[in-house]
Amino acid sequence: MRVLGVDPGLTRCGVGVVEGVAGRPLTMVGVGVVRTPADAELSHRLLAVEQGIEQWLDEYRPEFVAVERVFAQHNVRTVMGTAQASAVAMLCAARRGIPVALHTPSEVKAAVTGSGRADKAQVGAMVTRLLRLSAPPKPADAADALALAICHIWRAPAQNRLQQAVAQHQAHTATAAHAANTAHAAHATKGRTA
């Protein structure tokens, strides 16, 4: 499985590609940051983020895109920029038919470090260790993008099993309901003709 992790942001949008499967050593395929100038117009910054993500999708051809789920922070301007960059990443993936998964920061931290309250240094250290890198990726946004990709690779099998179980349950329920309706309709028809 090849996953592009995206740590959304307007000034620095972290991107990282990880390949592998749960239970086996993972490999970093690429890591970087899409940057935009803070003094540029918002529309131009979003366009730059879109172009950067498109380049990563062209070059690395991921099977999945994992994006950090935006959560409320104290600084509304920061949240807005993060949410806008997140939407651009999801749009780029959807345009190509690539499935998108959203993971909260605490889910990612818990998956990578074992603690949902880990700090950026702990996340960077574990990403370095898990991917067998010589040093933590810089800036932290790049390490966070790799952590998102790792989290998705590790969580996807369980999520897929859960989704399949729900789909099977819904199909079974629909089949049972259809059978009950058919039996009821047949009984009602038989009662009218007797």
Question: Can you describe what's shown?
Answer:
By secondary structure, the chain is α/β, with parallel strands linked by helices. The chain is built from five helices and five strands, in the order βββαβαβααα. It has helices at 42-60, 76-95, 105-113, 120-130, 140-193, and strands spanning 2-7, 12-19, 27-35, 64-68, 100-103. A five-stranded mixed beta sheet has the order 3-2-1-4-5. It starts with a strand and ends with a helix. The relative contact order is 0.17. The mean pLDDT is 89.
Give the count of helical stretches: 5
Distance between the termini: 62 Å
- In total, the number of strands is 5
Rounded mean pLDDT is 89
Global geometry:
elongated
Strand fraction band? Answer: 15-25%
The largest sheet, given as strand count, sense and whether it forms a barrel, is: 5 strands, mixed
| Residue windows where pLDDT falls under 50 for at least 5 positions | none
Strand line-up across the major sheet: 3-2-1-4-5
Order of helices and strands: EEEHEHEHHH
Rg over CA atoms: 22 Å
Main structural class: alpha/beta
Helix content: 55-70%
